[in-house]
Amino acid sequence: MRIAVTGIGMVTALGWGAEANWEAMLAGRSGVRPITRFDTTGMRTRFAASVDLPEDRPRHPVSVAERSRRLGEAVIAEALAQAGLEAPFPGPLCIGLPPVEIEWPQRLELNAADYPGLIEAASGRLDLQAEFLFGGTATRLAERFGTRGVPQTVTTACASGSSAIQMAIEAIRRGETDCAIAAGAEASLQPETLIRFSLLQALSTRNDAAEKASRPFTLSRDGFVMADGAGALVLEREDHARARGAAILGYVLGAGEAADKFHRTRSTPDGSAIIRAMSRAIADAGLEPSAIGYVNAHGTSTPENDKMEALASHALFGEAPPPISSTKSMIGHTLSAAGAIEAAVCLLALRDQMLPPTINNEDPDPELRLDTVPVARKHRFEAALSNSFGFGGQNVSVVLGRAD
After folding, report:
1. Domain enclosing residue 390, as ranges
2. Which of 94, 158, 179, 346 is an active site residue?
3. Catalytic residue among 94, 179, 240, 298
């Protein structure tokens, strides 16, 4: 059984809509810019690839939960429209989302000095409960699009979007549904999260040239760039899609995952968990590594991650891995949404037989020995691999195939 993709939706700092994003990526544009959503005075990192909304107000931006919902709604609506479907959708929603907690503006509003005081001050505030209840975003999206059953919310850090795709294809394979929506939405860019990642020394501090800060696979890479964004795919059994006359945009051929317990932010030094995730996805697709013609890298621009991904690529593919590019160089790291967005990018690359670039590649790291596609180019290939390696050791890879 093949799982067909009949709809794609995408929102990133480059724009709203899959085609607008794809055009910008092929042109090598950067969506990274100084943060205006909140005051960054005194912060080590003062830029991001943000998706701002008209409702954002100084000192009181739209919350993570509400922004995630808005972005998720936009990409699911786009994907359904392309698939020729509308609400109620006759399948489940599987979606990767960020963890949700009460944010600084709400805490300041409650004026509580400690956690017990916060709980007491929030007593009876049903508005806060409704907005920040874990899973509430997915529930609202499920209600909006009339999806079937309880929405499946997954939070596996940077692998969440890919995990959602894996959950959706497994449900279709098991015969539980003919179709599913697989999505990821991310809007964690707020002061506390930015500071937390900064304390982990995970973020770039290239404040003087924000658009050049995301530099995967280069000698000068110094950390990732936080980003908002969302992506969605409509997945169907191939025969179901053909029976209703839907245009097939490509296929999700397989997925693989592997846990890594070595360190909360670093991979096992031999790259074994990353290799297992990649090889399991390729095997699940019924392919050999030689069939993969392009890899959309996790490629975060951190010194450690890029080195480990290069090590794993050589271990799996040999001395000459397929071209591997990181679209995070343009749209930043969309965290929970990255896997869904990057799977969509692979499908567009397969459709047009074009490889998106890794920009800001003026000083490629020679030790990595990778073709990182510094400029978009034509390329003939039938299958692509999308990698998502999350903090906490959650690694998921997805194999995408070209439409017949």
Report:
1. 3-100+135-402
2. 158
3. 298
**114: in domain:** no
Band (241; pLDDT cuts 50, 70, 90): very high
Asked whether residue 262 carries a pLDDT value surpassing 70, the answer given is no
Q: Which amino acid is at 146?
A: G
How far, in Å, CA of 279 to CA of 396, rounded?
A: 10
Three-point CA angle 319, 320, 323, nearest 5°: 145
Rounded to the nearest 5°, which phi and psi values hold at 399?
Answer: -105, 125
Task: Give the number of other CB atoms < 10 A from CB of residue 229.
Answer: 31
- 289 pLDDT above the threshold of 80: yes
Instruction: Evaluate whether residue 18 is within a structural domain.
Output: yes
* Confidence at residue 149, expressed as pLDDT on a 0 to 100 scale: 92
The predicted model scores a pTM of: 0.93
Question: Could you give the maximum distance between any two Cα atoms of the chain, in Å?
Answer: 62
Q: Is the peptide bond before 88 cis (omega within 30 degrees of 0)?
A: yes
pLDDT tens-digit map of 187-230: 999 998 999 999 989 999 999 999 999 999 999 999 999 999 99
Tally of domains within the chain: 1
Domain-located, residue 112: no
The catalytically annotated residue of 94, 179, 333, 346 is 333
Place of tokens 């996790």: 298
DSSP 189-223: -SHHHHHHHHHTT-B---GGGGGG---TTBTT---
Condensed to tens digits (0 to 9), the pLDDT of residues 326-363 reads 999 999 999 999 999 999 999 999 999 999 999 999 99
Q: How far is CA 286 from the centre of its chain?
A: 25
What CATH number has the domain bearing residue 391?
3.40.47.10
Amino acid at residue number 23:
E
Secondary structure E strands in 187-336: 229-237, 250-259, 294-296, 324-325
Q: Is 60 tagged catalytic?
A: no
Q: Enter the tokens of residue 262.
A: 């070595």
Distances (CA, A) of 158 to 372, 387, 391: 21, 10, 7
Task: Tell me the average pLDDT of the chain.
Answer: 92
State the Cα–Cα distance between residues 307 and 313, nearest whole angstrom: 10
Nearest to 389 by CA among 290, 289, 278: 278
Q: Is the residue at 123 inside a domain?
A: no
For residues 245 and 193, what is the distance between their CA atoms, to the nearest angstrom? 45
